[in-house]
Automatic annotation (TrEMBL):
SUPFAM superfamilies: NAD(P)-binding Rossmann-fold domains. PANTHER family: NUCLEOSIDE-DIPHOSPHATE-SUGAR EPIMERASE, PUTATIVE-RELATED. Pfam families: Epimerase. It comes from the Bacteria. This is NAD(P)-dependent oxidoreductase. Signal peptide: none annotated. Residues 3-227 form the NAD-dependent epimerase/dehydratase domain.
């Protein structure tokens, strides 16, 4: 597929674009800075500028595309990862403005130009736990896509707004638009760098609902969504299958979630960030576990 990928130079985007490249897709990266991933073409674009977005969504990506003489090829899909990645990077109003406006422009251009699929990066923060003022417990466990999304912070607010915007564009256009509520992205080198501290102090993972997503498995999830057509508007949690701490499921509940309702029987080390929907609808099968990585 010919894919337009925004934010491909970022932490998650670098690994996702590399994975998609390895599956044979052709990737054009829209970002402020060039990607250092081999084989990925970058077009520097300000996504808050509607004119730049519309132009980039209907442009040649490489000189090779001029050779057939058959006109400008159309993109098969847009994957929109570009964003201010969290609170405290920019003033709150700027984080909200940039994230919502850029997503609106991508969805507007994609649907008007007839691109049949758009995948947007949403976030675990939409559930209101990650950046809450003080401790916020989930309403129930495991946290699935039906859990309320009432965050307090500008970043998560922007992601909730983006999901609503995506749903409205899908209703108007009828194309497939999938929103990925991505958990804390972990790069391969971060297992040895960070996870020993999580073993020593599991409370460090409370705001992430004790979950994580390997950056390579995130790429696999995007590819699963690209290969699955006809679902209309969907929201998916994206995480790995296991907890990000050395405790059992029961031990985490006893220590951190006393009194929180548990909706179903869970596995001994199963994530509290449910990925049942992603498994069922797009065939997502995470392959990387911190346990295996630390044993290398």
């Amino acid at each position: 597929m010919r894919i337009l990928f925004t934010g491909g130079s970022g932490k998650a985007g670098r690994h996702a674009t590399a994975y998609l490249r390895d599956q044979g897709h052709s990737i054009t990266n829209l970002d402020w800075v060039a990607s250092d991933v081999p084989g990925i073409t970058t077009l520097k674009v300000d996504l808050t500028d509607a004119g730049q977005v519309f132009n980039a969504c209907q442009a040649y990506a490489t000189f090779d595309e001029l050779e057939p003489g058959t006109g400008m090829p159309r993109y098969d899909a847009i994957v929109h990862f570009a964003a201010i990645p969290a609170i405290l990077h920019r003033p709150d109003n700027e984080t909200y403005r940039i994230n919502t406006l850029s997503t609106y422009h991508i969805l507007d251009a994609g649907t008007r130009l007839g691109i049949p699929k758009v995948i947007i990066a949403s976030s675990e923060t939409t559930y209101g736990i990650c950046f809450a003022d003080g401790e916020k417990l989930p309403d129930y466990l495991p946290v699935d896509e039906e859990h309320p999304t009432v965050p307090q912070d500008s970043y998560a607010m922007s992601k909730v707004v983006n999901e609503v915007t995506a749903r409205s564009f899908q209703a108007r256009s009828g194309i497939d638009i999938y929103a990925l509520r991505i958990n804390n992205v972990i790069e391969p080198h971060e297992y040895r760098q960070s996870f020993p501290a999580y073993m020593a102090n599991p409370a460090l993972r409370r705001r992430n609902i004790f979950a994580y997503i390997d950056a390579r498995d995130l790429g696999q999830m995007v590819d699963c969504c690209l290969k699955t057509d006809g679902l209309g508007y969907q929201v998916f949690n994206v995480a790995n299958e296991d907890l990000s701490v050395g405790l059992t499921n029961a031990q985490v509940i006893e220590r951190f979630y006393p009194g929180v309702p548990v909706q179903r029987t869970m596995g001994e080390y199963e994530t509290f960030y449910s990925i049942d929907k992603a498994r069922r609808l797009v065939g997502f099968k995470p392959r990387h576990s911190w346990r295996a990585e630390l044993e290398k």
